[in-house]
Design goal:
Radius of gyration: 19 Å
Structural class: alpha+beta
Helix content: 25-40%
Low-confidence stretches: 53-92
Strand content: 25-35%
Distance between the termini: 46 Å
Order of helices and strands: EHHEHHEEEEEEEEEE
Number of helices: 4
Shape: globular
Mean pLDDT: 82
Length: 214
């Protein structure tokens, strides 16, 4: 049961992937969910890694140790080259600050701490999309985030905007960079602020690496 999640009303594949730190494509593949990635309340989603993959790897390594050792360095060498391209595009692209205000909490690579940044501001001030994309979640079903918007920018990046007072977009809606998507609030937290995250292939990254200096 610990490796499963039962879909609740309002959940999307993307919100479940966000909740459990999965890349949405990997989660869809793990559960044999195809485009347009529709899920239904009561549906069981497997959120653990397949048991067969580690077993097969472990079985192969003792039998043919030299071959995997030679292959393993080759794979990481190819992967960073592939993965760095989207990151480079993001840094030089038109990413914008999601709102005005003072950054009151910074990103921490420790997953038990801050997975993004917190920006203090005034109740009701505009929260804007940091880059163009598609709204894949708009609701309050993720504990600790209050009224939350998640935007998918491409196959690699999503951004998330939490603690809003009011959401101005709906799931499936296309948004442009700088478009207002919500009003800042304090839902799910103790002060008026925006909690902002960027996730790359499901993993939180430091938004400050992508946002322009100010």
């Amino acid at each position: 049961q610990s490796g499963q999640y039962v879909v609740q009303q309002g959940d999307t594949l993307y919100s479940i992937a966000f909740r459990f730190g999965w890349d949405w494509r990997a989660l869809a593949q793990r559960n044999s969910i195809n485009s347009p990635y529709t899920i239904k309340p009561g549906q069981v989603i497997h959120i653990n890694q397949p048991a067969s993959a580690p077993t097969q790897t472990a079985a192969k390594q003792p039998a043919s140790k030299p071959a995997p050792v030679a292959a393993v360095p080759a794979k990481p060498a190819a992967k960073p080259a592939t993965q760095q391209a989207p990151a480079a595009r993001a840094r030089t692209g038109n990413w914008q600050w999601p709102t005005e205000g003072t950054t009151v909490a910074k990103f921490s690579s420790n997953t038990s701490l801050n997975k993004g940044i917190d920006i203090a501001g005034n109740l009701g001030q505009p929260v804007r999309a940091t880059a163009k994309g598609t709204v894949v979640y708009a609701g309050s079903g993720l504990r600790g985030y209050g009224e939350l918007v998640i935007i998918k920018h491409d196959e690699v990046f999503i951004s998330a905007y939490g603690h809003n007072r009011r959401l101005l977009v709906n799931e499936g809606q296309q948004v442009s960079a700088g478009q207002q998507i919500a009003e800042m609030g304090s839902t799910g937290t103790d002060r008026v602020k925006l909690h902002f995250e960027i996730r790359r292939q499901g993993k939180p990254v430091d938004p400050m690496q992508y946002l322009p200096a100010r």
